[in-house]
Design goal:
The complex is a heterodimer.
Chain A (H helix, E strand, L loop, with lengths): L2 H13 L1 H9 L13 H20 L9 H10 L4 H28 L8 H23 L4 H26 L6 H10 L1
Helix pairs in contact in A: 3-5, 4-5, 5-6, 7-8
Chain B lengths: L1 H36 L11 E5 L9 E11 L2 E13 L5 E4 L11 E3 L4 E3 L6 E2 L5 E3 L8 E7 L2 E8 L7
Antiparallel strand pairs in B: 1-10, 2-3, 3-4, 5-6, 6-7, 7-8, 9-10
Classes of the chains: A mainly alpha, B alpha+beta.
């Protein structure tokens, strides 16, 4: 037994990593498998790219209101390859949202959420929400005007929703949506 | 025979997949290492700061001028206090010495009685031209880049003096 094999066996025996990876990589795939099923893997790949480029950017990014914009400008204009890494991260985020939505549509149209895959669909919904939340928070990181107004809009949406819930709970005359909006605009 | 063909196809596809992954990995790893290891290219621009006016200086009487200047470090801009010992040679010519002794960086001062700059740390002395008179200082006082515009003394970067000490 070679040394490499022995190390692999040692790890496999203790973690089961190799058989777990093989379970995914060498899965039997039906003959009907086709290109429409790639979106899930593309999403995973894009996630890895996002994690990697995000880690790189975090070396030079300062997450404070006063310095976020300047540090991003520094990354883009002064660091070698900085605009490329930032571009990958920026566009990768948009691609990821697009691919995740395409993936969801594919699963829905092909009926891939049906028995016995209901739990997979539920996990997918949670992952979709996480992706959207990351998309929003990442959008705010440059802390430019766009990020600022993005924050205003999204916090206002949450504010309106909380008002709506408040109205429902207290059964106050909030029958017209206009009234809720007015209350929101005044505060 | 058929079994072998199937095996070959499988091996080919596997190596194609691994090859593609290696290519993608390289495409990410190369820009990443450039980003991490290559030095940044800072935008150098000459910044001139007003240290004082020619009018407030007297001939052959060095005066310490205090001014603020911005120091840029990466994305951080810090405003810091700076000083210079300014000597008016004529109405058109002013010399601005950097405020540190070239020996170990102590703050020196002008000794009017002896007509020389004196560093209190190791007793280096310098002439009004900045040349070393006595002491351990290895070279003359460093000078700011300087220009005079409409009676204002503008200073730029500090230039190290040549090794004209004995």
């Amino acid at each position: 037994m070679t040394l490499k094999r022995r190390i692999a066996e040692w790890i496999e025996h203790r973690t089961g990593l190799e058989s777990a990876a093989k379970q995914f990589l060498y899965e039997e795939i039906p003959a009907s498998a086709s290109w429409h099923q790639v979106f899930g893997s593309v999403a995973v790949f894009l996630f890895l790219v996002q994690a990697f480029t995000g880690l790189l950017l975090s070396f030079n990014y300062a997450g404070t209101p006063g310095e976020a914009y300047n540090s991003l400008r520094y990354i883009i204009t002064e660091l070698t390859g900085g605009s490329l890494i930032r571009g990958l991260h920026h566009w990768g985020a948009s691609f990821m949202i697009v691919v995740v939505v395409l993936h969801m549509m594919q699963v829905f149209i092909w009926g891939a959420y049906k028995k016995p895959r209901e739990a997979t669909w539920m996990v997918g919904v949670v992952l979709l929400l996480i992706v959207l939340a990351f998309g929003l928070t990442g959008y705010l990181l440059p802390w430019d005007n766009r990020a600022y107004w993005g924050t205003v809009v999204t916090t206002q949406i949450m504010h309106r929703i909380s008002l709506l819930v408040w109205c429902l709970v207290h059964k106050i005359v909030c029958t017209k949506t206009g009234q809720i909006l007015l209350v929101g605009a005044e505060s | 025979m058929n079994q072998n063909l199937e095996q070959d196809r499988r091996t080919f596809l596997l190596s194609a997949i691994y090859g593609l992954w290696a290519l993608i990995g390289l495409l990410l790893a190369i820009p990443a290492s450039i980003y991490l290891l290559w030095p940044p290219r800072p935008k150098k621009e000459d910044v001139w700061v007003e240290a004082g006016t020619v009018g407030e200086l007297k001939l052959d009487a060095p005066a310490e001028l205090v001014f603020r200047r911005n120091r840029v470090d990466g994305w951080k801009v810090a405003s810091e206090k700076s000083t210079t010992w300014a000597v008016k040679v004529s109405d058109q010519e002013v010399i601005a010495f950097a405020p540190q002794c070239p020996h170990l960086g102590c703050a020196y001062h002008w000794n009017a009685a002896k007509h020389e700059f004196l560093c209190p740390c190791h007793a280096s002395t310098f002439s009004i031209q900045g040349d070393v008179l006595t002491g351990p200082a290895p070279r003359a006082l460093d000078r700011y880049e300087l220009k005079i515009e409409q009676g204002k003394v503008l200073v730029g970067a500090i230039r190290k003096s040549g090794g004209d000490a004995g």
